Structure formats: structure tokens, C-alpha cells
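Example for tutorial group B:
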């Protein structure tokens, strides 16, 4: 006989409640239409859709992303750690190394410790890659085409979120990070990019003191950069019109190449609409030694901050060495649907949201 605890009503109305589902259903059907429109765009551009495995040797090697870990039991082998990926990027780049030239995927992705109106533990990532593509040309064009495809489906003229509004018929803005700092934070970024780590960090701290942005004594340069970006710049982006924020400092390059015309900056961009970060794109790094160096530095920082590190996938580094020059982009599909439908949060546009999961004691008897 089931215990009373198991039979008790949930604390909140579940997503599968018929009334609640009926309210959400128009948004979910719009999600399907948006996905079809995006698939049609990529098909017209000669892309093929791929499916990537979620279970990986390494989930990612980014300092602040937290993954779900499990144990893999293979017949005849010792148990091994495995991870649900935080994005399909590693698998997609292995496909580029294998010879694929234009690929896209709608992949489930997993990030632990994230649940807000814009975050969910499991979500859908749209990623695409063009071998030989141009960064400020084809990659930017693809990104805006995907954005327009979603809003063309719903016919929504303005995207809104948290009091911010974006005219979806307006020409997108291309804004360099250094220009964004000057415009919204009120100071120049270049003096913090001399290459002298201590001097650059001290200059950054002084700038933050002048504009009353809090910081901690042990903040790294990247921490200081992120504080200004989060508090002063991101809320202003995508207001009025979509914003492509590009030319990130090289320290924030992640998996992107260093800009050919200025080694202080990297070929990386992010797309913002109504203050919401939607996409993150790179001119992809194809130097395995540099990629390994970045990964190691990020994992050292992760260990310092959080007491954990994720393995670096040697198979991925081997694939990086075989990759052709390429551009690629990762876009939060649930966020895109949320904005294009006017929904309140990503859970309203996901067919089966991850439910609240609370700690419990095993039931006896």
C-alpha cells in the first residue's frame, strides 16, 4: 500500500495538469513551428541535422559551469565517471574533424545549479557550424536569420523581458565590447589590456571603485570583467534593437581564435535581445595546444573556487587538430521561443519541464 507521503498532493500545480497544459499548449505548438522554420533555413543553406550523444568523457571545461555526473558500468570494465554535456560542442567539432562541413543540432543540454526564468537544469541548445565560414559575415548572418525565423512564425513585433523591449524589425546593432564599456560603464577597457596581469587587475579595480561596482580582494581579471558586464552592460543590450556584442578580450576567448588584427581581442560574439543573452559564437580555435592550455587554466580556477575539476577529453583535443577552419554558434532555443512567444519564462515553452526535486527520506514499511 502506498504511503500517505507518496499520495499527498504536490506543493504546486504540475505542468501536466490539464488546465495548466491547456494554457501552455499554444506556446508549445509555436515552439514546434519555430523549430520547423529554423530547420527549413538550415536545409536551404545546405546544412544537415545531426544528433549528438549527451553522455561524454568531459561535460565542458568552463570554470563556472557545473555538470551532472554519473557512473558508467561497461561489461568487463571498472566503473568510470561520465558526464551529461553542458552543450553538444565537443561532439559537433569531432564531426567537423570527420569531414562534415555544415551541421546543426537541437540537442538536450544539462547544467547543474541553474534554475531561474532563463535557466533550467535541462534545456535545448541549437548549435550550428560552417567549415570555412566567415565570422562577421556568414556566422552573424546565420544568427540573425535564425532570430528572424522565430519571430516571423509568431508575428511578434517586439520582444520584452523584465521591463526591457526590443524592436524585432530594427536593424541589429554590432557593438564591440570595448565600445560597450565606454558607453555603459563609462571607462575605457584598453588600459586594462596591457599584458601585465597585476597592473591590469589593479587598473580594473580602480575603475570599478569609480563607478561603485563591488568587487572582492581575490577577484581575478575575468571576475572583474564579468561584474561590469553583468551589472552595467548586459541590461542595456538588445534594448531597442538586437545587439551583436563582439571582440571579447582574449582572456574571455574560451574556444575562439585570437583576432588577426589585434591580439588583445578574440573572435567571439554574443547575441542579446531585450537584455537576454541568446547566443554565443566563435571563429573556432583549431590549435590543440592552445586549447589544452586554456582548458587547464580554467580547470585550475575551477578547483580553486569550487573544489572540483572535470577531465579534459584527449579525443576532443585530437579532433581539434584535425578540424578545418570553421565558425560556430550555440543558441538557447528555449529562450528564443520564450521571447518570440511573449512567455514569462523558459518553463512555459518546454513540453515537459524538469519538476522541482527536493531532498527526501526513504519511506519505510
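The residue assignment follows.
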Amino acid at each position: 500500500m502506498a504511503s500517505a507521503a507518496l499520495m499527498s498532493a504536490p506543493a504546486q500545480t504540475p505542468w501536466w495538469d490539464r488546465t495548466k497544459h491547456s494554457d501552455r499548449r499554444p506556446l508549445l505548438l509555436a515552439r514546434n513551428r519555430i523549430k520547423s522554420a529554423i530547420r527549413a533555413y538550415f536545409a536551404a543553406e545546405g546544412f544537415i541535422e545531426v544528433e549528438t550523444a549527451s553522455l561524454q568523457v568531459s561535460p565542458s571545461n568552463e570554470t563556472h559551469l557545473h555538470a551532472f555526473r554519473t557512473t558508467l558500468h561497461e561489461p568487463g570494465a571498472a566503473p568510470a565517471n561520465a558526464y551529461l554535456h553542458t552543450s553538444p560542442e565537443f561532439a559537433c567539432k569531432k564531426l567537423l574533424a570527420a569531414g562534415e562541413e555544415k551541421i546543426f543540432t537541437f540537442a538536450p543540454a544539462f547544467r547543474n545549479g541553474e534554475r531561474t526564468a532563463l535557466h533550467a537544469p535541462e534545456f535545448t541548445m541549437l548549435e550550428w557550424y560552417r567549415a570555412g565560414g566567415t565570422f562577421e559575415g556568414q556566422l552573424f548572418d546565420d544568427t540573425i536569420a535564425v532570430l528572424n525565423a522565430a519571430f516571423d512564425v509568431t508575428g511578434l513585433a517586439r520582444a520584452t523581458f523584465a521591463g526591457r523591449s526590443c524592436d524585432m524589425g530594427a536593424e541589429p546593432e554590432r557593438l564591440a565590447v570595448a565600445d560597450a564599456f565606454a558607453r555603459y560603464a563609462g571607462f575605457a577597457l584598453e588600459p586594462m589590456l596591457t599584458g601585465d596581469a597585476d597592473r591590469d587587475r589593479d587598473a580594473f579595480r580602480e575603475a570599478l571603485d569609480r563607478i561603485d561596482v563591488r568587487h572582492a580582494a581575490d577577484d581575478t581579471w575575468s571576475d572583474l570583467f564579468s561584474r561590469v558586464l553583468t551589472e552595467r552592460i548586459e541590461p542595456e543590450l538588445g534594448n531597442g534593437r538586437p545587439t551583436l556584442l563582439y571582440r571579447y578580450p582574449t582572456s574571455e576567448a574560451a574556444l575562439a581564435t585570437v583576432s588577426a588584427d589585434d591580439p588583445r581581442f578574440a573572435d567571439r560574439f554574443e547575441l542579446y535581445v531585450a537584455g537576454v543573452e541568446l547566443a554565443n559564437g566563435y571563429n573556432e580555435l583549431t590549435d590543440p595546444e592552445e586549447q589544452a592550455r586554456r582548458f587547464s587554466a580554467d580547470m585550475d580556477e575551477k578547483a580553486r573556487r569550487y573544489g572540483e575539476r572535470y577531465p579534459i577529453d584527449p579525443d576532443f583535443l585530437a579532433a581539434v587538430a584535425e578540424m578545418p577552419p570553421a565558425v560556430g554558434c550555440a543558441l538557447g532555443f528555449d529562450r528564443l521561443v520564450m521571447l518570440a512567444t511573449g512567455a514569462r519564462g523558459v518553463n512555459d515553452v518546454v513540453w515537459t519541464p524538469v519538476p522541482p526535486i527536493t531532498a527526501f527520506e526513504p519511506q519505510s514499511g
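The CA atoms of residues 23 and 348 lie 9 Å apart. Compare this with the pattern of hydrophobic and polar residues in the output above.
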